[in-house]
Amino acid sequence: MNLPNKLTMLRIILIPIFLVFLLCPIPYGRYAALAVFIIASLTDCLDGYIARKYNLITDFGKFIDPLADKLLCSSAMIALTNVPGSVISLPLVVVIIIIAREFMITGFRTLAVEKGVVIAASPWGKAKTISQMLMIILLLLNLDVLKILTVFIIAVATVLTVISAVDYLIKNKSVLKG
User: Fold this and answer.
1) 2-55 residue pLDDT tens
2) Selection from 93, 98, 87, 95 nearest residue 30 by Cα
3) Rounded to the nearest 5 degrees, what angle is found at the Cα of 42, between the Cα atoms of 24 and 168?
4) b (16+ CB within 10 A) / e for 91-128
5) Structure pTM?
6) Which residue from 34, 103, 48 is spatially nearest to 74, judged by alpha carbons?
């Protein structure tokens, strides 16, 4: 297993640690969860950079990296829908929209692979992921002074989620034919 794939696996291993810090009554657990989430998010940037720079892209990495992202962000969003003491809880409808998009695009990509079509990540998809990670970080910071910014980023992440889904479907509509 190469370094980028090890970093991706580390991201998956960090998910339960993140959840324990966030959901268990541990002093400063929310801030420990924030640190773990940031480290896990940075592994996402780092594994892709290393894989591209050193030509370490593997089929396993193509499969597991987006899955790790979805697991990390989905777990965080579900957990953040109802955390006691939160300045803002993530609205459940936002979580449903985002997770529904992830299932839809994952299914769409699976269908494309069966037809021999590779659907690369789009700039909209990357912007969606970055906005979701920023949204989660702001929710974890839980600062009243950032309340308006947090609500704005929640809206941006939701809109980018929908735009990226539509973009994938329009650009690859030939996958749905036949």
Assistant:
1) 999 999 999 999 999 999 999 999 999 999 999 999 999 999 999 999 999 999
2) 87
3) 100
4) eeebbebbbebbeebeebbeebeeeeeebeeeebbebb
5) 0.93
6) 103
